[in-house]
From TrEMBL:
This is LysM domain GPI-anchored protein. Keywords: Membrane, Signal, Transmembrane, Transmembrane helix. It comes from Medicago truncatula (Barrel medic). CDD domains: LysM. Residues 1-30 form the signal peptide.
Length: 372
């Protein structure tokens, strides 16, 4: 190769390297390992996670994959009509919220021994983590949770536990439902905070983010969803009854339907008789009334900022559902979550795209020099 050509090639390589440095990129994974803090030892609760499939699927297949025991739980988490068929089609990359039980141990929250996945021929732990469970966990986490000595040596037919990240901790002294949210491209800490009515600082602190611009598309973010106020007793079998806004939940063996609709002034959980046949070992649902003949969910009196309502307070294993006449505050509370946070995930994804293109360019230039 002539001296002139060599100088041009070296100059091109230098320019490419400078461009990589100028965009301020560090080579990081698009989906860092998620470990949700859970400081309340042995606490249990319900949590949510996003799930997207690269292929078309159905709600039944998703419920089976994640071990969702009651199909109505999946419908309620996505605010779908309770008569939705389990063959409901889910399009590729459509986000479905999946409910699951969470347990806290050793300052970390994980799904309480669900989902259980049966290994099929050709599976690898990495493919199970990245493809089957959409990157919600890393293969190393599956390996550790199941005490698998060699990640490259798994047995078809064996059943393994997929430890999804979660938490049961209150946030700022308030009960919440922790939601493992897959950060979409183009979103930011500001937009996520506004969407879910929480503060940006809470999101940053909870996820150990020093700078909102460090948010990555594809990252699993711990989003503490505000829940409706309830009168649930601490000794009830469904305590804590956490129902986020725009969702519903069937409880007390599906005898009671509770929904949270806090778009207006009412931030209280609204429970009523489900009119469904009870599940498990209950043959019929007990009477759902307060003192006198006030039915569950009915209001007896109202004024400008409160109302008296027959409210659900819990159930026991002895086929008993308890209620009380409760005074509920109905005045509006201003939502939190304003302020500027920068470009966040959109910038991170753009930087990753630029990095990939520049690295490819460098490789081609080096190959060009070698061939000459």
């Amino acid at each position: 190769m002539s001296g002139g050509n060599k100088m041009v090639t070296v100059w091109l390589i230098t320019v490419a390297v400078v461009l990589v440095a100028s965009v301020g990129i560090t080579v990081t994974e698009a989906q860092p390992e998620a470990n949700f803090k859970c400081l309340t030892e042995n606490a249990t609760c319900r949590s949510l996670t996003d799930y997207t499939s690269t292929n078309s699927t159905t709600l039944k297949e998703i419920a089976t994959l994640f071990g969702v025991k009651h199909f109505l739980d999946l419908l309620g988490a996505n605010n779908l009509p309770s008569n939705t068929n389990n063959s409901y089609k889910v399009n590729p990359n459509q986000v479905i919220k999946v409910p699951f039980p969470c347990k806290c141990s050793n300052r970390t929250g994980t799904s309480n021994h669900v989902p259980r996945y049966k290994i099929v021929p050709g599976d690898t732990l990495d493919a199970i983590a990245r493809v089957r469970f959409a990157g919600l966990v890393k293969y190393q986490q599956i390996q550790t949770a199941n005490k698998i000595p060699d990640a490259n040596n798994i047995t078809a037919g064996a059943t393994i536990w997929i430890p999804l990240p979660c938490s049961c901790d209150p946030v700022d002294g308030t009960s919440v439902m922790h939601y493992a949210h897959i950060v979409p491209m183009g979103s930011s800490i500001q937009s996520i905070a506004q969407q879910y009515a929480i503060s940006q600082q809470t999101l940053l602190s909870l996820n150990d983010l020093d700078d909102p611009k460090n948010l990555l598309a594809g990252q699993l973010l711990d989003v503490p969803l505000p829940v409706c106020n309830s009168s649930i007793k601490s000794d009830s079998l469904d305590f804590p009854l956490l129902v986020p806004n725009a969702t519903y939940f069937y409880t007390a063996h599906e005898c009671v339907k509770c929904k949270c609709d806090s778009t207006g002034d009412n931030k209280n959980l609204q429970c009523e008789a489900s009119n469904l046949k009870p599940i498990n070992n209950w043959s019929v649902c007990p009477s759902l009334k307060c003192s006198g003949s006030v039915l569950l969910g009915n209001t007896t009196s109202t004024d400008s900022c409160s109302r008296r309502v027959c409210d659900y307070t819990g159930y026991t294993s002895s086929r008993n559902i308890s209620t009380t006449l409760a005074t509920q505050n109905t005045c509006a509370v201003a939502p939190s979550g304003s302020g500027d946070s920068g470009s966040g995930a959109s910038r991170s994804m753009l930087n990753g795209w630029v990095l990939n293109k520049l690295l490819i360019l460098i490789h081609f230039l080096i190959l060009f020099v070698y061939l000459l």
